[in-house]
């Protein structure tokens, strides 16, 4: 079994290696899946670079990856919800950078024939995160206005679509390049941060702010958009304490919880996809090679195009 592992913390070109691994045994309540595609997340980049080592220690060689899609090839005897041959999407704790994976059945969901491997692999972490923020972390009232910063990213586009499904008034900011993309998803009002100042356009309008920017770079701007006593959710880091002290509100960072059900979130996303109410955006589809994986990590370290980078197996 071929997999891509990191030998330690550091630059992608120095620590990634291709390894041949021994297949794991399928234990009770687990499945084996032959992966057809996996996608890259900013979290993978943070883990590989060592930025997360204070909160998550890795043992090397370590195989990254939380998002994949493929075919079930083996099922534990106590699992009756899946069968060999099922097309599925997977959300493992790690290990998706490879040809196959063994994982709990609770981290798997069936996908329809019309959903491609690439689309399935591209929707996992971003879609699940957006679903849990909207449906579990927050209590959004029908009259609320929600601001999404980083609206053209994977989580941002998912947030806007899920909020639109609920009929929530949504404000959004992204670059001018992605204006039409974001507007097409049902956002109520849009502001290009590279053409104007969204904090002036939307000043004190949002009951809830969801900061989906990389590294929470829009914090100071988003605080000005939030109403006094509003609710601010950061998907990465919260704005500085000095910035938060400028306006009263409830500030918190989104953290995935064990009680959140992957199958619940994925079932909702897949149902919305089947009815045309959830679109998945892919920036690049490439063969699963070491060179392409290293390139993908370099792209995510910069300012990548809207959409996920997905690596595929024939």
List the helices and strands and how they pair.
Blueprint: E1 2-6, H1 12-15, E2 16-20, E3 30-39, H2 42-49, E4 68-75, E5 87-90, E6 100-104, E7 108-110, H3 117-137, E8 145-149, H4 154-165, E9 169-174, H5 179-183, E10 189-192, H6 198-201, E11 206-211, H7 219-225, E12 226-234, H8 241-244, E13 249-253, H9 262-274, E14 282-287, H10 290-301, E15 308-312
Parallel strand pairs: 8-9, 8-11, 9-10, 11-12, 12-13, 14-15
Antiparallel strand pairs: 1-2, 3-4, 3-6, 3-15, 4-5, 5-7
Quote the distance from N terminus to C terminus.
Answer: 14 Å
CATH class of the largest domain: Alpha Beta
The CATH homologous superfamily of the largest domain is termed: Medium-chain alcohol dehydrogenases, catalytic domain
User: Which sequence of SSEs, written as H and E, runs from N to C?
Assistant: EHEEHEEEEHEHEHEHEHEHEHEHE
Polypeptide structure, described:
This protein is of the alpha/beta class and 314 residues long. It has 2 domains: 2-110 and 281-312, Quinone Oxidoreductase, Chain A, domain 1 (Alpha-Beta Complex), CATH 3.90.180.10; 126-253, 3-Layer(aba) Sandwich (Rossmann fold), CATH 3.40.50.720. Helix content is 29%, strand content 27%. The protein has 10 helices and 15 strands. It has helices at residues 12-15, 42-49, 117-137, 154-165, 179-183, 198-201, 219-225, 241-244, 262-274, 290-301; strands at 2-6, 16-20, 30-39, 68-75, 87-90, 100-104, 108-110, 145-149, 169-174, 189-192, 206-211, 226-234, 249-253, 282-287, 308-312. Strands 3, 4, 5, 6, 7, 14 and 15 form a 7-stranded mixed β-sheet that branches. A 6-stranded parallel β-sheet has the order 10-9-8-11-12-13. The longest helix is centred in the middle third of the chain and has 21 residues, at 117-137. It is globular. The mean pLDDT is 95.
């Amino acid at each position: 079994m071929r997999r891509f592992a990191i030998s330690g913390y550091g630059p992608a070109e120095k620590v990634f290696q291709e390894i041949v691994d021994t297949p794991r045994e399928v234990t009770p309540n687990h499945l084996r899946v032959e992966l057809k595609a996996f996608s890259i997340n900013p979290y993978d980049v943070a883990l590989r670079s060592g930025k997360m080592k204070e909160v998550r220690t890795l043992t090397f060689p370590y195989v990254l990856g939380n998002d994949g899609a493929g075919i079930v090839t083996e099922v534990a005897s106590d699992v009756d919800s899946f069968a060999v041959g099922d097309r599925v999407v997977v959300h493992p704790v790690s290990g998706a950078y490879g040809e196959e994976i063994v994982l709990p059945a609770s981290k798997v969901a069936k996908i329809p024939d019309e959903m491609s491997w690439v689309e399935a692999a591209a929707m996992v972490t971003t879609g699940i995160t957006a679903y849990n923020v909207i449906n579990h972390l927050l209590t959004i009232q029908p009259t609320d206005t929600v601001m999404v910063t980083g609206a053209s990213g994977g989580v941002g586009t998912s947030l806007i679509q899920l909020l639109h499904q609920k009929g929530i008034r949504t404000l959004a900011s992204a670059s001018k390049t992605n204006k039409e993309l974001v507007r097409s998803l049902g956002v109520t009002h849009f502001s290009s941060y590279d053409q104007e100042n969204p904090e002036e356009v939307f000043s004190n309008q949002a009951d809830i702010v969801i900061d989906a920017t990389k590294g929470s770079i829009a914090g100071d701007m988003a605080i000005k958009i939030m109403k006094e006593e509003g609710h601010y959710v950061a998907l990465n880091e919260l704005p500085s304490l000095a910035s938060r002290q400028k306006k009263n509100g409830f500030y918190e960072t989104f953290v995935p919880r064990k009680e959140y059900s992957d199958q619940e979130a994925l079932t909702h996303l897949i149902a919305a996809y089947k009815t045309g109410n959830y679109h998945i955006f892919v920036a690049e589809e490439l063969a699963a090679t070491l060179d392409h994986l290293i390139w993908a990590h370099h792209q995510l370290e910069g300012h990548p195009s809207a959409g996920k980078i997905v690596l595929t197996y024939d």
